[in-house]
């Protein structure tokens, strides 16, 4: 069975009330529910984790390394500062899609650099909260297996 871990970093627990003009109206629980629904419809298992603490995020990434097929990660402001989180991702073999709700490239210059991006599989930036579900779709599509006749086998 394929398994996805959704990880959200600092201040993302306040989605829904945090700067809604930038991050939208949906709560983190809403987002987790949407991602879980998409994954379960496609036969995937789902786990979610949020923390405001860098070390706890590192521990969650390490602990998932033998269980998760993929990780969707919004590191919040740690995107721009954390060599330790970058090293955690580089230390495991699980592919990571980095998601940012806002278009960080249109915002303050300190948000233009991601220390995380070079060690991720890909990024989805500026698409709003649907970006998380788009990332889940990318994993589902990538890990779907074809049989010898070119038919799609839903992976189990
Ligand atoms: C964010 C962008 C970061 O710059 C910011 O610190 C966040 C959220 C986003 O999802 O757009 O906390 O990662």
From TrEMBL:
One of its GO terms (biological process) is amino acid biosynthetic process. The record marks 18 as: Transition state stabilizer. Signal peptide: none annotated. Substrate binds at residues 74, 80, 87, 101-102, 111. The active site is at residues 23, 100. It holds the Pfam family DHquinase_II. Its EC number is 4.2.1.10. Keywords: Amino-acid biosynthesis, Aromatic amino acid biosynthesis, Lyase. InterPro entries: DHquinase_II (IPR001874), DHquinase_II_CS (IPR018509), DHquinase_II_sf (IPR036441). It catalyses: 3-dehydroquinate = 3-dehydroshikimate + H2O. Pathway: Metabolic intermediate biosynthesis; chorismate biosynthesis; chorismate from D-erythrose 4-phosphate and phosphoenolpyruvate: step 3/7. One of its GO terms (molecular function) is 3-dehydroquinate dehydratase activity. Catalyzes a trans-dehydration via an enolate intermediate. Belongs to the type-II 3-dehydroquinase family. HAMAP family: AroQ. Homododecamer. This is 3-dehydroquinate dehydratase. It comes from Pontibacillus marinus BH030004 = DSM 16465. The lineage of its organism: Bacteria, Bacillati, Bacillota, Bacilli, Bacillales.
């Amino acid at each position: 069975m394929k398994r996805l871990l959704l990880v959200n970093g600092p201040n993302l627990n306040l989605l829904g009330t945090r700067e809604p003009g930038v991050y939208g109206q949906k709560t983190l629980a809403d987002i987790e529910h949407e991602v879980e629904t998409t994954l379960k419809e496609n036969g995937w298992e789902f786990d979610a984790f949020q923390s405001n603490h860098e070390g706890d995020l590192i521990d969650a990434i390490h602990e998932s390394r033998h269980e998760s097929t993929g990780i969707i990660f919004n590191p919040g402001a740690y995107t721009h500062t954390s060599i330790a989180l970058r090293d955690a991702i580089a230390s495991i073999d699980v592919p990571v899609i980095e998601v940012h709700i806002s278009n960080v490239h249109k915002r303050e210059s300190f948000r233009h650099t991601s220390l995380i991006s070079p060690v991720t599989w890909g990024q989805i930036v500026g698409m709003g909260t649907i970006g998380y579900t788009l990332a889940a779709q990318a994993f589902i599509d990538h890990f779907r297996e074809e049989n010898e006749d070119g038919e799609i086998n839903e992976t189990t």
